[in-house]
């Protein structure tokens, strides 16, 4: 039992370190370099676990990871607000793990700025 | 991102259930919450029983501990299977393609087989173990502890991988 208690701090450390690999957290995104651009929505997947849209940025198609469906609705971005052909402004960070994927901290839709973190 | 995967995963993802889980704002987070509560019930009960078999809390008779923990273990297991299938169906192909998820699946199979073998071998002899369980049984309790903790770790880690 004592050994268990001694191991606990190590386990806690591992738990804290885990977000460094994060998809759920922001660690796997390059937050040292904010990417901000305006583009027309090419595709929308209004789905769990994360809503995704596809935008063109610097000549390439990027998968743009937004928030879970519940949060999107809660923060004023229901499904009808994100449709193909609409122009949006996004601000976020490119993935360090997946090519052409970025995670968005803030999106402007119809002149409304919505925080997604 | 496009994903390939086994036909069963594609079928599950394309099913009405998969679509419902992806599209519903409420069901997905509810299934997530159920999966955490189920983990508490299931893994909590298992860990307590395994610790008893490994020699902790000897004042409590092993057979009585096993009996007392069986209902929460069973309910927790059912909650985990149901909520797990729901979550999995939303995103089956990418999840199945995730190596951490494959380790998790293997550990679940190992954990279940280990528990069934344990039950078949030792269930009737639990009352004799109040002092010390046989070495093989203690090893199985240790495997069980590691396997189910590993399942929980993999489950959480898969989202980060």
How are the secondary structure elements laid out?
The complex is a heterodimer of chains A (117) and B (161).
Chain A: H1 2-17, E1 35-40, E2 43-45, E3 52-57, E4 60-65, H2 69-74, E5 87-94, E6 101-109, E7 112-115
Parallel strand pairs in A: 4-6
Antiparallel strand pairs in A: 1-5, 2-3, 3-4, 5-6, 6-7
Chain B: H1 7-14, H2 16-23, H3 27-53, H4 62-90, H5 92-96, H6 99-122, H7 135-158
General description of the model:
The complex is a heterodimer of chains A (117) and B (161). Chain A is α+β, with helices and mostly antiparallel strands. Chain A has a single domain, classed as OB fold (Dihydrolipoamide Acetyltransferase, E2P), CATH 2.40.50.1010. In chain A, 19% of the residues lie in helices and 36% in strands. Chain A is built from 2 helices and 7 strands; from the N terminus they run αββββαβββ. Chain B has one domain. Chain B contains 7 helices and no strands. Chain B is elongated. Chain B starts with 6 loop residues before the first helix and ends with a helix. In chain B, α2 crosses α4 (62-90) and α3 packs antiparallel against α4. Chain A binds chain B through residues 1, 18-19, 21-25, 28, 46-49, 63, 68-70, 72-73, 98, 101, and chain B through 1, 21-26, 28-29, 56, 90-91, 156-157, 159-161.
Please give a handful of descriptors for the protein shown.
heterodimer; A: 117 residues; alpha+beta; OB fold (Dihydrolipoamide Acetyltransferase, E2P); 7-stranded mixed β-sheet; 2 helices; B: 161 residues; mainly alpha; elongated
């Amino acid at each position: 039992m004592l050994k268990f208690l001694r191991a606990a701090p190590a386990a806690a450390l591992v738990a804290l370190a885990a977000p460094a690999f994060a998809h759920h957290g922001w660690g796997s995104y390059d937050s040292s370099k904010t990417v901000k651009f305006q583009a027309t929505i090419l595709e929308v997947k209004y789905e769990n676990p994360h809503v995704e849209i596809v935008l063109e940025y610097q000549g390439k198609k990027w998968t743009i990871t937004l928030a879970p469906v519940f949060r999107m609705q809660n923060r004023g971005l229901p499904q009808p607000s994100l449709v193909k052909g609409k122009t949006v402004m996004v601000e976020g960070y490119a993935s360090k793990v997946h090519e052409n994927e970025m995670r968005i901290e803030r999106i402007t839709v119809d002149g409304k700025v919505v925080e997604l973190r | 991102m496009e994903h390939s995967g086994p036909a069963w995963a594609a079928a599950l993802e394309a099913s009405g259930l998969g679509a419902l889980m992806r599209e519903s704002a409420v069901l997905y987070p509810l299934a997530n919450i159920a999966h955490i509560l189920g983990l508490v019930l299931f893994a909590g009960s298992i860990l307590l029983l395994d610790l008893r078999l490994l020699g902790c809390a000897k004042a409590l008779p092993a057979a009585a501990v096993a009996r007392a923990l069986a209902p929460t273990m069973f309910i927790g297991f059912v909650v985990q299977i149901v909520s797990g299938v729901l979550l999995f169906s939303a995103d089956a192909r990418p999840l199945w393609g995730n190596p951490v998820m494959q380790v998790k699946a293997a550990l679940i199979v190992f954990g279940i087989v280990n528990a069934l073998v344990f039950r078949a071998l030792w269930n009737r002899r639990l009352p004799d173990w109040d002092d010390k369980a046989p070495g093989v049984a203690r090893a199985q309790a240790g495997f069980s502890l590691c396997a189910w903790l590993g399942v929980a770790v993999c489950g959480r880690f898969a989202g980060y991988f």
